[in-house]
Amino acid sequence: MTIDPSRYHQIFPVLTNQQIDMARRFASSGPHSFGPGETVSAIGDRNVPAWLILEGQLDVFRHDGLTSEAAVVNHGKGHVFGEVSQLSGRPSLAGARAGPEGCVALAFDATHLKALIIGSAEVGEIVMRAYILRRVELIDSGSGGSVLVGTSADSELVRLQGFLSRNGYPHIEPHRVCRRLQLLREWSR
Fold first, then answer.
1. pTM check: above 0.85
2. Burial 118-135 (b: 16+ CB within 10 A, else e)
3. Is there a contact between 20 and 54 (Cβ–Cβ < 8 Å)?
4. pLDDT, tens only, 105-117
5. H, E, C per residue of 21-83
6. d(Cα 1, Cα 3) in Å, to the nearest integer?
7. pLDDT, tens digit, for every residue of 86-102?
8. HSE (CB half, 13 Å, CA atoms) of 54?
9. SS3 assignment, position 169
10. What are 105's strand-pairing partners?
11. Closest by alpha carbon to 31, among 91, 107, 137?
12. Do residues 85 and 93 touch, judged by C-beta distance below 8 A?
């Protein structure tokens, strides 16, 4: 995923200590500790909470259509993991695991995340802007969500692409998958 450098601070904002203290009041449970490399959530999991990193690092990854995963971002203290899917309980488009030193994070299930967004205008605006911009980046880059495989002449595939695009759901289009397959074949020779 290629991220516009001028929007990076909005897509991956860092909350101040005061904002963290405000958000802490809305957490669905106390701090969770994750060991180095421990899986926090997998791609496709439903009802994944948003996580506010208090210590350490949370490494976020996604599928790229061919390899098992591609790095998206490394969240540190004050970062909030998640995207719009966290608000609705839909399958997660990204996975996360604790960084090399582990991490400590606060969980916000969908209900508590909504309460944070409504109850703290300042933090809620920051989180919602980040979530919306993350979704836009996934759609614009064509680098997340469903992987569509087929030919561009297939009317059913075109119909599916249209449906996903109209509904703002990220997907990797067939021409991107075909180009990646071609590069993989060339590389393996």
1. no
2. eebeebbebbeebbebbb
3. yes
4. 999 999 999 999 9
5. HHHHCCCCCCCEEECCCCEEECCCCCCCCEEEEEEEEEEEEECCCCCCCEEEEEECCCCEECC
6. 6
7. 888 888 888 899 999 99
8. 14
9. coil
10. 32, 53
11. 107
12. yes
